[in-house]
Amino acid sequence: MRSSRTALRRTAAHLAPATAALLLLTGGLTACSTGDDVDPTASATDPCAALAAYGTFADGTTVTIATAFTGTEAERFDASVEQFEECTGIDVVQHGSDDLESVLRQAVDAAATTPEATDDADVAGGKQKDAELPDLAVVPQPGLVGDLARAGMLVPVPDSVGANVELGWDRAWMDVGSVDGVLYAAPLMASVKSFIWYSPVAFAQAGYEVPTTWDELVALTARIAADNAADASEGGDGESTEDAEDGKAEEEGSGTDVVTPWCLGASDGDSTGWVVSDWLEEALLATDGVGAYDAWAGHVVALDDASAVDALDAVGSLLLTDGNVPGGGQQAVNTTVEEAGAQLLDGSCYMLHASSGYENLLPEGAEVVAADGVPGSGTATAAGTGASDSAAPEESASAQATASQTSATTGGVVSAFLVPGVVDDDAGAPVIVGGDFLVQLSAGAAAAGGDAEDGEGADPEAVEAVMTYLSSAEWAQARVDLGGVATANRGVDASRMSSDVARRATLLLQSRQSVIRFDASDSMPSTVGTDALWSALTQWTAGELDSKEALAQAEAAWPE
């Protein structure tokens, strides 16, 4: 059970600022976790044999971990550690919150104001005995990892964790988790962000083909808009133009009176705007290549450099031209990421740019199939409802393609293709990737340094055991087997994955031949990349700023 937010804020008011922010995030750490599922990688006769190296711990041993996971994603994380908990006796208590990023940024700011707050357990006249800090956190941006480390809020990962990362992951993943040559963050999961989700059924119905170049993507966008504008002007389905105009008043304001080329949902609470920053980065990489992308991401050139302004203008032409997204930019900033997925499934729009992990946010029952739309191996059902070995629509794509003038027929089936772009030398088109990183908070480590028998802080050996397990290929396999995520860990057998999109993403991430670039905004100082830039791009989407103004506003926030 989690403490109420109101009561928690009263408790936090007596703590040092950084401590209070993290306490708010964890809800007082009063939750508990349970589980008795068998780890699929363990022995059938002795499921704990494969986990013996992690040791066993006394009843009541608890390690707390703050994440940004909610809903199905949080449930799957809990399921991925159930066998570990049963075999080691460690209770891994997850506290998922959409506020993770903003709370951690607040903690960094508070630490800068009162640096002793991150190390001082004695506050406001005495030690706070009825509240604990999280031992670990899963941070979704390497830029935020850097900010936390420089604020003195992180502990370098144990040698066992570093060894796991070095064994399973490409060197690039170690580099983004390091600050000044010290590894502070271990990659857990990864995603390919350069995917465009679509319905093969809807494409087949309309006679559209997956584009293979950026110019083809632009042309397809224009064709879809023109086709559906023509349908709307004719009234559709045999309806006269006069009859269609009679019903126009009923449809105005809905933003869905015609089918649009793109779905766009930019609203995501404190993180609103990241969807548009992903689009900006995609356009820059796809049209100008890795050189221009690296210069912009590394701040070799200003954020409002002409290359970035041109890329954002290209995004505006693609998305914000009248009739290209439901309701235009004004509606997009009030449409959630999940609602955009529902629009894709109900046929309000044809395409949606999102990462390989987007299937976690699709409406329940949506089927993720191979890119060619052919049922069979690689078909998975969204929202954790299970995978199907032969599950596919009962009807073929052509049989389902019944004409409709007000929405595309999707059959509840989706897949994804990579954003087409320029080819970098002979290595193939580059893709943007992201990941979640495991860190140990120094406040938690300080508490763990006390006597575990006193009940103050976690057992440091238990904390290391959890970190070592979560950074292992065994955990990575257990997690991807549950669905909804990809990984770059080369110890994972991607053939076991039920989702074709997740499997393709994993194979791409594991390949040494892939040209990858980390999400630029995620790697920038968090006050810029995940704050000022997102805010400016939200204003741009709503029509309040032009491309140059938006990027100049973000540039002004870059630390001196």
Key traits:
24 helices, 42% helix, 560 residues
Descriptive notes:
- The protein is built from 24 helices and 18 strands.
- It is globular, with a radius of gyration of 24 Å.
- A hairpin with a 4-residue loop joins strand 14 and strand 15 (386-387).
- Helix 2 (17-26) packs antiparallel against helix 5 and helix 13 packs antiparallel against helix 14 (306-319).
Residue-averaged pLDDT, rounded?
Answer: 81
Spatial shape? globular
Terminal-residue CA separation? 44 Å
The percent of residues in helical segments reads 40-55%
Strand content: 5-15%
Biggest beta sheet summary: 7 strands, mixed
Instruction: Look at the helices and sheets and give the structural class.
Output: alpha/beta
Q: Compute the number of helices.
A: 24
Keywords: Signal
Protein name: Carbohydrate ABC transporter substrate-binding protein
Give a brief outline of the structure.
Residues 234-245 have a biased composition (Acidic residues). The chain has 560 residues and is an alpha/beta fold.
Topology readout:
Layout: H1 5-12, H2 17-26, E1 62-67, H3 71-80, H4 82-88, E2 91-96, H5 100-113, E3 122-123, E4 126-127, E5 136-139, H6 142-150, E6 154-155, H7 159-168, H8 171-176, E7 178-179, E8 182-183, E9 186-192, E10 195-198, H9 200-206, H10 214-234, H11 241-246, H12 248-251, E11 260-262, H13 274-297, H14 306-319, H15 328-332, H16 337-346, E12 349-354, E13 367-368, E14 380-381, E15 386-387, H17 397-400, E16 413-418, E17 431-441, H18 442-448, H19 460-470, H20 473-481, H21 500-510, E18 516-518, H22 520-523, H23 526-541, H24 547-555
Parallel strand pairs: 1-2, 1-5, 11-12, 13-16, 17-18
Antiparallel strand pairs: 3-4, 5-17, 6-17, 7-8, 9-17, 10-12, 10-16, 13-14, 14-15
